[in-house]
Amino acid sequence: MSELNKAILAASRGDARMERDGWVCREFVFREDFPGFDGHFPNYPVLPAIIQMMAGASLTASWLGRIPEVCQVKNAKFMAPIHPNAVVHIHARAQGLETAEIRVLLGDRLAATFTLGFSLAV
């Protein structure tokens, strides 16, 4: 597992939980010293989209058994910046074995949505 994936998992608070509607949810708090904020952006740190995607992919391990290799991103929309120390809820739902729908929330506000496609090759 990469150091960045380890840092993402360290930012999670608690285990992923399965909700009644088929979504898997996990809470994250990315502190000021989280490596993803380095240089993005100076004096105005914003969580990069790729980190949000990696965190979403980490949730799929609950049904895939491991964090998959992301090979495709579809319909990505980022509506709100995520700053250090924000409480972020990331939700993932399987759409077949090799695709997942991801939602990123700041409180009740939708911050991002995207669909990830995976390569399950070993």
Structure summarized in a few sentences:
The protein has 122 residues and is of the alpha+beta class.
Record the SSE blueprint.
Blueprint: H1 3-10, E1 12-18, E2 24-29, H2 49-59, H3 61-64, E3 69-78, E4 87-94, E5 99-106, E6 109-119
Antiparallel strand pairs: 1-2, 2-4, 3-6, 4-5, 5-6
InterPro entries: ApeI-like, HotDog_dom_sf
Protein name: ApeI dehydratase-like domain-containing protein
Domain ApeI dehydratase-like: 26-95
Task: Report what the structure shows.
There is one protein chain. By secondary structure, the chain is α+β, with helices and mostly antiparallel strands. The protein is globular and about 40 Å long. The protein is built from 3 helices and 6 strands. The chain has one domain (3-119): Thiol Ester Dehydrase, Chain A. 25% of the residues are buried. The chain starts with a helix and ends with a strand. It has a 6-stranded antiparallel beta sheet with strand order 1-2-4-5-6-3. Strand 4 and strand 5 form a beta hairpin. The longest helix is centred in the middle third of the chain and has 11 residues, at 49-59. It comes from Solidesulfovibrio aerotolerans. Residues 26-95 form the ApeI dehydratase-like domain. This is ApeI dehydratase-like domain-containing protein. Pfam families: ApeI-like.
